[in-house]
Amino acid sequence: MSWIFLVIAGLLEIGWAIGLKYTEGWSRVGPSVLTILTMIASFYCLAIAIKDIPIGTGYAIWTGIGAVGTAILGIILLGESASPMRIACIGVVILGIIGLKITAA
């Protein structure tokens, strides 16, 4: 169950990271409130997950899911660069996440 909470926490991190863009410097109330609520939910799920998952593994996977998802959505939603080097680097992060999961105690 802890791994499920960790994945949910990572997905919520993607949500709040993208949400930050739409807050326009916290000047838009709706996106700002939604972003803050998503942050709280993400941290809550992470806290539940790391009760049973080592903190180094849990935190790295959480940030990895968030980084990969945010980069992909940045490409899709915000027109950010999809250069081969950028895609390759995202792939390296994914390999790191997989490696941490495989070697988790």
Automatic annotation (TrEMBL):
Entry superkingdom: Bacteria
InterPro entries: EmrE-like, Small_drug/metabolite_transptr, Small_multidrug_res
TM annotation in the entry: 33-50, 59-79, 85-104
Primary localization: membrane
UniProt entry tagged with the keyword Nucleotide-binding: no
Keyword terms: Cell membrane, Membrane, Transmembrane, Transmembrane helix, Transport
Keyword Transmembrane: yes
Subcellular location(s) per record: Cell membrane
Membrane topology value: Multi-pass membrane protein
Family according to the record: Belongs to the drug/metabolite transporter (DMT) superfamily. Small multidrug resistance (SMR) (TC 2.A.7.1) family. Gdx/SugE subfamily.
Protein name from the UniProt record: Guanidinium exporter
Gene name per UniProt: sugE
